[in-house]
Amino acid sequence: MNIKYLGHSAFYMEAGNYSAIIDPFITDNPQCTATVDDFKNLNHIFVTHGHGDHLGDAVELAIKTNATIITNFELGNYLLFNNNNISVHTMHIGGSVVIDGVSIKMTNALHGSCVITTDQEIIYAGNPCGFLINYDGIKIYHAGDTGLTLDMKLLEDEYVNAALLPIGGNFTMDIPDACKAVDFIKPDLAIPMHYNTFPPIKADPYKFQESASCKVKVMDVNQVITI
After folding, report:
1. Cα 186 to Cα 153: distance, rounded to the nearest angstrom
2. Is 38 exposed, middle or buried (0-12, 13-18, 19+ CB in 10 A)?
3. Mean pLDDT across the stretch 24-39?
4. What's the predicted TM-score (pTM) here?
5. E strands within 23-158?
6. How many helices (H) and strands (E) does the chain have?
7. CA separation (Å) from 124 to 51, 115, 116, 180?
8. pLDDT for res 119
């Protein structure tokens, strides 16, 4: 599987005829150089929660590519009610499903979730989450926006190939807590995310690389690695 970093918490994944994007914060992402038009074919769009820097361009991408948005029940139904021409599959924490041959499990995340409308109305958007994505035995864990949680210890039994972990602090885990998360999960590889996009989440990913107990890859925006 090829994984491309788009900046912030957004990743594009591709393997064989399968392609997916996670937390597609593209248009207003100061780190991202891609555009929505760059994505011609997508099977899945994973959205961990309703905040704008994660929901991002999910609806526009779903309309453009006919991809299925995979997210929690409340956010998924909100999106459907406002865009009835998109495909949405809703889940909840601990649930698992196989879609298009890909095994997906929704994991816990300690955070908030809302959608702020153009009228400045705040809409509750269900529980935030992470995803454990298993494509042909390759397991990718995207933690979403989360603080450290002991639930991550359960992921040790999943033999995660790559863990995508926030390190920016303030809204999520900081570097010391992300290192503890690595100790719990024991992935083959950890990739830091959700840092340096905005001043409140300034962090040095190389300090995480130096301190973590597994191999860490600090990815440049647009860099592609193969798992």
Report:
1. 9
2. exposed
3. 94
4. 0.96
5. 44-46, 68-72, 87-91, 96-99, 102-108, 114-116, 122-124, 129-135, 138-142
6. 5, 16
7. 10, 7, 9, 30
8. 83
